[in-house]
Amino acid sequence: MVSKKYYFKGYRSILTHDSPAIALTCCFIAIGALFKNLGFNIQESIFSTVLTYALPGSLVMAESMLIGASLLNIFLAVWFVNARLYPMAVSLFPLMMHKSQPKWKYYFSCHFIAVSAWLIMKSNYKKIPKEHRIDYWIGIGSATVSVSVIGTFIGFSFSEYLNKDMMMGLAILNPVYFLCMMVGAAKTIQITLSVVLGLILGPIIYLLSPEWSILLAGIIGGTIAYLLGEYNVS
Amino acid sequence: MSANIVYAILVTSLATFLSRFLGAVTSEGIKETSKLFKWFNCLAYATLAALIARTIIFPAGVLMDASYSSRLVVVLLSVFVFFISKKNFVYPTIFSAICMTVVNNYI
Lengths: 234, 107
Fold this sequence. Notes:
The complex is a heterodimer of chains A (234) and B (107). Chain A has 234 residues and is mainly alpha-helical. Chain A has two domains: 4-175, no CATH class; 186-234, no CATH class. Chain A has helices at residues 4-11, 21-38, 42-52, 55-66, 71-82, 85-90, 103-109, 115-124, 133-157, 164-185, 189-208, 213-233. Chain A is globular and about 55 Å long. By secondary structure, chain B is mainly alpha-helical. Chain B has three domains: 1-30; 34-59; 66-107. Chain B contains four helices and no strands. Chain B has helices spanning 3-26, 35-57, 68-84, 90-106. At the A-B interface, helix 2, helix 3, helix 4, helix 5 and helix 6 of A face helix 1, helix 2, helix 3 and helix 4 of B.
């Protein structure tokens, strides 16, 4: 079963002074308000946050529903946008794999892969014994999902009090917070180059292919950063 | 619950879970010291950075109504606050929300 000690240690990680809780709550307040404007009820809004738990995917679903897209179109659009979760999972799970842990924990907890939880885990995993990292991760994931649900509830409940300026303020929080976390995480040549190249290539490739821009920028920028880093080491 | 909305939520969560699950399954054979792991780590950071840049420069939703220059000014000032606050994540985040409202209304 899950070790309570490490689970709650992970859960408490969002209570630190530089926690993502504030940014995450604000982002999901905006999402909650958006869901209400789309005609969702409170159950549907919370159901969506818990099951999807990925901001860009939720935004794409909302936009697709606004224009009356089919379910297949929604699936493909969300899949393209959230394909970034694949390399994020591959670059995180090997750090948590341990023979003593059952596989269901990994398959279940992959649902928690999202930018905030991923960055918290990447910053803290060295402090946790490898055997217990998965329990710590499940704690982080549970905490970030809880915060997201609270944000969605607040946003849904108070949507009529949120004017356009407030919504804009809430919407800019998310990219700023993640950008600061990424800059803070850039401590090696490879990671720094990956971040810089991703920031430059993302918008450039978007002009050529909006659907594929994030994936292509990630593959091209990440590969160049990896090769330059390896060359530098050798 | 409306059936259409529930189907849309289920389809969205399935599309999202697919990438996560495939990532978890694939990573079973990858060691954290391997070159493949390092490469995927670079891909993940570059992909996230690309997503952030796209969100700021080509946003969806309510941010589309803010001008390109105002978004850029807010982000640059927030990164500046991040550095002068000794890399604290909370100050620049709160600053960005207030700054966005001020820049969009008064400048």
